[in-house]
Design goal:
The chain is α/β, with parallel strands linked by helices. It is built from 14 helices and 14 strands. A 7-stranded parallel β-sheet has the order 3-2-1-4-5-7-11, with helices on both faces. A 3-stranded mixed β-sheet has the order 8-10-12. The longest helix has 18 residues, at about 90-105. The model has no long low-confidence stretch (mean pLDDT about 95).
């Protein structure tokens, strides 16, 4: 990357739970002064643009449906942080086309730091049992056994293939169940969604039901990670990508986990009941069955680079009450 100009960074998902947390860290990072950020912002949030500009951030209005915008912005970028829709293959392909243009014009490999989730590992346990299968991010051969039909997998493969073609260096971060309300400058000014997905979904379903609930017996197992720890993982990967130390491509998968839980333990209230067909059929509970899957993994690659998650399972349980209060306060059920 040229040293005579600022590093160009294109960032998607800035107003999201994870994206806002990562962006807040990058603004405080020593490299910010020598970086020029362009954020993809939905037109519905254009009233927030002035606040972002005041922080030294550029914006472009659009969404993942605007493939021309994605390609054009990626073609100007030294680094792309993709922290939006993990399953949008067309959007990812547009970003890759732009990065290929960047490489063809400069001969320098741009970096792509892409977000999926540990959902790529899921089975169909329906909450009835755990699994002994644990994926290790230091074992690319094991990761490559994942079927192309797995959630997110077609996007992952497209990115790894681009890395194999040597026109990008790709780093794929896979958070697990992220917990705790985000607390950043963007949350404070109403720019960022402060709440996660899985635990709030379980909370909302329980509120509709009138008691805590589980899928099946709640015996399935997922890893978990605090939102601040996952934000730190992105920074560790970013720093080590810049220095050339971070593995990329097929050796560039980074799980985010620091412990694991059974669904049953999250649903205690004090005695969760199995969700029924009536529960699953509520439009507000769309995708509830997903919470009955298994997805077990080891985040060894990030730790090898210096990632040190500090929050534990005890913190995960302590985070549930504030999440319940937020769901009720926000009227999101």
């Amino acid at each position: 990357m040229a040293s005579s100009r600022k590093r160009a960074i294109f960032f998607t998902g800035a107003t999201g739970y994870v994206g806002g947390t990562v962006l807040a860290r990058l603004i405080d990072h020593p490299t910010f002064a020598n970086s020029e950020f362009t954020l993809l912002i939905r037109p519905s949030k254009k009233d927030k643009v002035a606040t972002l500009h005041s922080l030294g951030l550029r914006t472009v209005l659009g969404s993942y449906d605007d493939l021309d915008i994605l390609e054009e912005q990626a073609s100007k970028a030294d680094i792309v942080f993709s922290i939006a829709d993990a399953d949008n293959l067309a959007a990812t392909q547009a970003i890759l086309r732009g990065l290929k243009r960047k490489y063809d014009a400069t001969g320098q490999q741009p970096l792509l730091i892409h977000t999926v989730s540990a959902g790529v590992l899921v089975d169909n346990a329906k909450g009835l049992h755990s699994t002994d299968v644990i994926y290790d991010d230091l074992n690319p051969d094991q990761i490559e056994t994942l079927a192309i039909t797995q959630l997110h997998r077609n996007v992952d493969v497209a990115i790894v293939d681009a890395d194999k073609e040597n026109y990008i260096k790709a780093y794929i971060i896979l958070p697990s169940t992220i917990y705790a309300l985000a607390k950043t400058r963007f949350v404070d000014v109403g720019l960022q969604n402060p709440s996660s997905l899985q635990i709030p979904q379980l909370i909302r379903a329980g509120l509709f039901k009138g008691q805590g609930g589980v899928v099946g017996k709640g015996e399935n197992v997922w890893p978990n990670v605090h939102i601040d720890d996952i934000g730190d993982l992105y920074v560790v990967v970013y720093e080590n990508a810049l220095s050339g130390r971070a593995g990329h491509g097929r050796e560039g998968f980074y799980f985010g986990e620091n412990g694991e839980h059974k669904l049953y333990d999250l649903g205690k209230s004090p005695e969760p009941a199995p969700f029924t067909e009536e529960d699953y059929n509520r439009p507000e509970n769309f995708g509830l069955e997903f919470l009955g899957t298994n997805a077990r993994c080891l985040a060894r690659r990030g730790r090898a680079l210096g990632w040190k998650p500090k929050y534990t399972m005890e913190d995960a349980f302590k985070s549930i009450r504030p999440e319940v209060e937020y769901v009720i306060r926000s009227g999101k059920y």
